[in-house]
Every structure is written in structure tokens, then in C-alpha cells.
Design goal:
The chain is α/β, with parallel strands linked by helices. The protein has helices spanning 20-29, 43-60, 113-118, 174-186, 199-209, 222-226, 228-234, 242-248, 254-267, 290-302, 311-314, 319-334, 337-345, 354-368, 382-389, 403-409, 426-439, 473-478, and strands at residues 8-13, 33-37, 65-69, 85-88, 93-97, 107-109, 124-127, 132-140, 143-150, 152-155, 160-161, 190-193, 214-219, 237-241, 272-275, 306-309, 374-377, 396-400, 415-419, 448-454, 463-470. It has three domains: 8-73 and 171-336, Phosphoenolpyruvate-binding domains (TIM Barrel, Alpha-Beta Barrel); 85-161, PK beta-barrel domain-like (M1 Pyruvate Kinase, Domain 3, Beta Barrel), CATH 2.40.33.10; 354-478, Pyruvate kinase, C-terminal domain (Pyruvate Kinase, Chain: A, domain 1, 3-Layer(aba) Sandwich). It is built from 18 helices and 21 strands. The longest helix is centred in the N-terminal third of the chain and has 18 residues, at 43-60. 47% of the residues are buried. This is Pyruvate kinase.
């Protein structure tokens, strides 16, 4: 099923979209990747959704990527006495401590010693997604005396954000480690890592995954923004998780951060997802707001690899309509001449390897002649990622004999993945590429494609050969003896 757009759509599964029938409907509407949110549902629920996705994949004959999103450590206040809620007013004192006695209007337990270890006077604490803000005046190993700077109602087990310090917490909780092992054994393609603060967080997840899934780091902490270059280098992909970023940073900081991170990911040839509240109103409405459509369009104009639906597809009343809306917006934006101008003007000119030169040449040839597609053989996915970094105007066909590689590449901008037979000779690669291009409607038998590969085959990062191939050559090759 050929998509008529380059950007990919990630749809989160949940109560509104857990059946095989709905998963198929969402895929047909435009979902390329399905996200399993490990914050909700049991392992049995996750396994059932995974199984349904794979059944739809088999029926559709097209690779589908599965992204398991790990919960990460959850920082929350304790419980309150009385009715479980109190109003805090601006200017009043409020204390957080390790005492497990029920809280009141003057104090509450914060059962996370690691926060007290890291706090310093002048730091901010945000409660309930930033609706309540506390300024730390004095703190120790088991307490923090604060002043309320933004008031509101505080209640049982509301979440806490600590934006001003790097917390001595690993990104993986005990639950996350159990979940990671479960989904890797299940056979997911991507692991989204929450609460990333430092490179070591990514390295720990990679050591536990043992190559069974690619690592995608969620950028949702100020510390991650600060150390982004290192985190990007250690990761296979990035998610710009704007929800928590907008809580822990001034909201006006998020748009320029989004643009900067997307460009860095593009330059590094690593896929990047823009996520959170993209079509939030469609949880309850069959149509989005104009502002939401503009937000989705902005991510597309920036050249992001994927845009993501969360509650819209997981728990909303209109999951199919939300996916279809994203698909329609993407097709409209990508048909705009301004889109092509923006994408091409923002290409990275930094090229240092033979592979860089080959994929750049492939893109130049495709855009200055009548070539209809770029086909690349890529067992590891590297060649396809480099071609996608060029953001060519023509379609990209990635051929690989590894089903896992094809699934992971389903997240990458403009890449149509085809699982092919293994090849050990370049002419066989050319023949397979021509068949894929013609069979999927990218080229007619009288037209041409560009084929790139690395010789010797099955050597990651060895892209070193380019061929402009007339599709009629398949008649010649098929008549040759082996």
C-alpha cells in the first residue's frame, strides 16, 4: 500500500484502538508505526496488541514498525488527609519532606530521597504538570521549605517535575527493566526511553536491549536539551516530547528547541518524531482546530521523520479521523512548492565519506534527470538513512533481506521498505530494485531508477556504488544464465 507522502505517522494504541479491526483501519488510514505505551495496560494487553499488529502486517504485506514507550521513573507527592486536596495560595510557605504522615495545607510527603539530594535553594518544583509552582528557599537531605509562586489545588499523588537540576535517577526504573525485557522478547522494533538526562541513560538501555530493538531517546528534560549532541550520538532516533518540555521550560522555548533538534537529527541521519498534543481536540471532536493543523504542518515543513498521535488515537472518540487528518495535512503540505524550497534549503552540506558522496550524487541525479526513484540495498539500514537525510524529491525504496531492518526503517522519512531475497551480486540487486519499483508503481518498464548499494554486500556502512538502471534491464538480466 503506497503512501502519497514522505513523513510517517505514529499512532498510539489504547482502549479506543486495541482490536485487530481498528488497528487495520488505522493502518489503512495512514498509520505507519504503532506505539505501545508501557505506562498503561498489563503485559497481556501489550502482547495482544503486538500480536494484532503483526497479523495486520502479514495481511497487508507491508512492514509495520512497533514502538514500545517505556514509562520512566514517576515522581509524585504523597497523600493528603481529609478529602485529599488542599488549596495553595501564592506567597504561602509549603514544605516537602520524607515523613509519610498525611499531608495538609502546609506540607506533604515527597517520597523521593534523590530529589532532596539534588535540590539547592533557588530551584523550582512543579506539581501537577506545572499548575502549581514552588520555589525552594531552604533544603536538606530530607526536606525542602518552599514558597508557593503559582497557586492552585494540590491533591493525592500529583506528579512532580524538577527542571533546574539533574536528578541522580536512572532513566530506567525496576518496572522499566522488566518491561524492556518483555517487549524485546516479544519482538518490538523501537524502544522509546523516557526521562533521559544524560548519555549514560541511553547506554544502559542499549546494553539491556542487546541489539533486539533500536533505541529512541525522548527529549523531555532540560538536561537532555543541554546534552543533546551526546544523547543524539548514542541513540538510534529521537522523540521531541513537547509535553514535558513545555512543563519544565518556558513554553515559548519549546518551538525553537523543536526546530533545532529536528535539524540536528536530520544532519545526523537519525529519525526524529515530533510528539504530544498535535491534534489534542480530536480526542473529543471529529475535526481539529486550525492551530493544531498549523502545528502539524510546521513539523512537516521542518522535515521531521514522523509525527505522533497519543491520546487522540489511544483513547479518543475519533482515532481513524485523527490519523486521516494527519495524512491529509501531510499530503497537502508536501505538495506545496514552498515545502520543497524549505526542505532543500535546510539540507546539511557536511559530507565526509564515500557513502555521503554516493547518496548525494543519487539525489542530484534523481532531481536533474527523469529518474523515478532511488532504490538502496541496506541490511543494517544505514544506506537508507543516508538517502533519506538528503530528502530527495523522488521516492526512496529500501530493499533488505532482514525483516527487522525493514520494520525499523518504517519510521524513516520517505522510505518505502521491501523485504527481498538476499543478494550477493550487484546485478541481482539491480534486478530486485527494478522489480520493486515497477511492481509498486514507482516506475514504468520504460523508465529509469537509481540503485545504490555497498559492495561487498552485508557490510554495514559500505555504500560505495551507484547505478542509473533502465527498468527494461530486467528483461536482459532475466534472460542471462547464472
Amino acid at each position: 500500500m503506497r503512501r502519497h507522502r514522505k513523513i510517517k505517522i505514529v499512532a498510539t494504541l489504547g482502549p479506543a484502538s486495541s482490536t485487530k479491526e481498528m488497528i487495520r483501519i488505522l493502518h489503512e488510514a495512514g498509520a505507519d508505526v504503532f506505539r505501545l505505551n508501557m505506562s498503561h495496560g498489563s503485559h497481556d494487553d501489550v502482547a495482544a496488541r503486538h500480536r494484532a499488529i503483526r497479523e495486520v502486517e502479514a495481511e497487508m504485506g507491508q512492514p509495520i514498525a512497533i514502538l514500545a514507550d517505556l514509562q520512566g521513573p514517576k515522581l509524585r507527592v504523597g497523600v493528603f488527609g481529609g478529602e485529599g486536596a488542599f488549596d495553595l495560595e501564592v506567597g504561602q510557605p509549603f514544605r516537602l519532606d520524607l515523613n509519610d504522615a498525611p499531608g495538609d495545607a502546609t506540607r506533604v510527603q515527597l517520597p523521593h530521597k534523590e530529589i532532596f539530594d539534588a535540590l539547592e535553594p533557588g530551584a523550582s518544583l512543579l506539581v501537577n504538570d506545572g499548575k502549581i509552582r514552588l520555589l525552594v528557599n531552604d533544603c536538606g537531605r530530607d526536606f525542602a521549605n518552599c514558597t508557593v509562586t503559582v497557586g492552585g489545588t494540590i491533591s493525592n499523588r500529583k506528579g512532580v517535575n524538577v527542571p533546574d537540576v539533574v536528578l541522580p535517577l536512572a532513566a530506567l526504573s525496576d518496572k522499566d527493566r522488566r518491561d524492556l525485557e518483555f517487549v524485546c522478547e516479544l519482538g518490538v522494533d523501537w524502544l522509546a526511553l523516557s526521562f533521559v538526562q544524560r548519555v549514560a541513560d541511553v547506554e544502559e538501555a542499549r546494553s539491556l536491549a542487546k541489539g533486539r530493538a533500536a533505541i529512541l531517546s525522548k527529549i523531555e528534560k532540560p538536561a537532555a536539551v543541554k546534552d543533546f549532541d551526546g544523547i543524539l550520538a548514542a541513540s538510534d532516533g529521537i522523540m521531541v516530547a513537547r509535553g514535558d518540555l513545555g512543563v519544565e521550560l518556558p513554553v515559548q522555548n519549546v518551538p525553537p528547541i523543536q526546530k533545532r533538534l529536528v535539524r540536528k537529527c536530520r544532519a545526523a541521519a537519525k529519525p526524529v518524531i515530533v510528539a504530544t498534543q498535535m491534534l489534542e481536540s480530536m480526542i473529543e471532536s471529529p475535526v481539529p482546530t486550525r492551530a493544531e493543523v498549523s502545528d502539524v504542518a510546521t513539523a512537516i515543513y521542518e522535515g521531521a521523520d514522523a509525527i505522533m498521535l497519543s491520546a487522540e488515537s489511544a483513547a479518543g472518540q475519533f482515532p481513524r479521523e485523527a490519523v486521516a487528518t494527519m495524512d491529509a495535512v501531510a499530503q497537502e503540505v508536501e505538495s506545496d512548492p514552498t515545502y520543497t524550497q524549505i526542505i532543500e534549503s535546510s539540507r546539511s552540506a557536511h559530507r565526509t565519506t564515500v557513502a555521503d558522496g554516493i547518496v548525494s550524487a543519487a539525489r542530484e541525479i534523481a532531481e536533474t534527470t527523469d529518474v523515478k526513484a532511488i532504490a538502496c540495498f541496506s541490511e543494517s539500514g544505514t544506506t537508507a538513512l543516508l538517502v533519506a537525510r538528503e530528502r530527495p524529491r523522488v521516492p526512496i525504496i529500501a530493499l533488505t533481506s532482514l525483516e527487522g531492518t525493514a520494520r525499523r526503517l518504517s519510521l524513516t522519512w520517505g522510505v518505502d521498505c521491501v523485504v527481498s531475497e538476499p543478494v550477493d551480486r550487484f546485478k541481482h540487486a539491480v534486478l530486485a530494485a527494478i522489480h520493486a519499483a515497477v511492481d509498486q508503481g514507482y516506475a514504468q518498464p520504460t523508465e529509469r531508477i537509481v540503485v545504490t548499494a555497498g559492495v561487498p554486500f552485508n557490510t554495514p556502512g559500505s555504500t560505495n556504488i551507484l547505478r542509473v538502471a533502465p527498468c527494461q534491464e530486467r528483461l536482459i538480466y532475466e534472460g542471462e544464465p547464472e
